[in-house]
Amino acid sequence: MSLVLLSVTAVLWKPLLALSINRDIAIAEGINGRVSDVVFLVLVASLVAFGLKIVGALLIVALILIPPAAARAFARTPEAMAIIAGVIGAASAPLGIEASWITNAPTGPAIVLAAAALFALALAYIPVSAKFTRRTPN
Amino acid sequence: MDDFLWRAMLGAGLLGAAAGPIGCFVLWRRMAYLGESIAHLGLTGVAAGILLGISPLLGVTLLAILAALIMARASEGARGLIPSGTVIGIVGHVGLALGFVLLSMMETVRADLLGYLFGDVLPYQRPKSTSSPR
Predict the structure, then answer these.
(1) pLDDT for A19-31, tens place per residue?
(2) Whole-prediction pTM value?
(3) By the 8 A CB rule, do B44 and B95 touch?
(4) Whole-angstrom distance, CA of residue B2 vs CA of residue B7
(5) What is the interface pTM, i.e. ipTM, of the complex?
(6) Beta-carbon separation of A94 and B65 below 8 A
(7) Most-buried pick from A12, A38, A40, A85 (CB within 10 A)?
(8) What does the buried/exposed string (b/e) look like for B7-45 if buried means 16 or more CB atoms within 10 Å of the residue's CB?
């Protein structure tokens, strides 16, 4: 199921990205905005439905929001951000389950906390990376 | 480490891998609240799925898709009189409340409410025969 969602996202990457950047230009280029919107909503809905069992109705949104937010710290292109977000999302699951196994905490919240910990690391990385990339003129 | 733990990690890991890229679009389009509302409506989907005798997962999928379409229309339908964020928030929380009410009305079914709200990956991935009685 997750693999299906992932491949649909990959196939629809170009039109969805174009619509997110500039809706008017994307539609002028011949992308069907309405159809893409509906497909995107269906994607989110199926992801929520599938995630409901694993991390729960109240916390699935955290798994949708935290990995991309964390990936933003490292990514320079949209593609990189999506891939890094996927990796962070995938990594937080075993981390959270391992933690919940050790501490006997509920699994879903533990996964979200693991994702949040990765997000905190990403936040800490932003000033570090800024030091290396941005040079202030003397 | 037990076998079911690996399966849980694989299932949840794949979910996280799919959630990452899709979440990027949610972020770029500033639709965080929409996802939240769809998720809240998921609880009504669970209740509807049990009521109709189909699997809760199928109920959630159908209702979440329906909700997404309703909300896409609702924000247009209010004609700017009510902010779309408000419409989305109302729909989502009505779904959450309705789900609770429906689930509590079904006396014959004892749904694991906490499991639907906060997830329950381990029994879900474990084969039914070995699950411990509650």
Answers:
(1) 888 878 888 887 7
(2) 0.79
(3) yes
(4) 9
(5) 0.83
(6) no
(7) A85
(8) bbbebbbbbbbbbbbbbbbbbbeebebbbbbbbbbbbbb
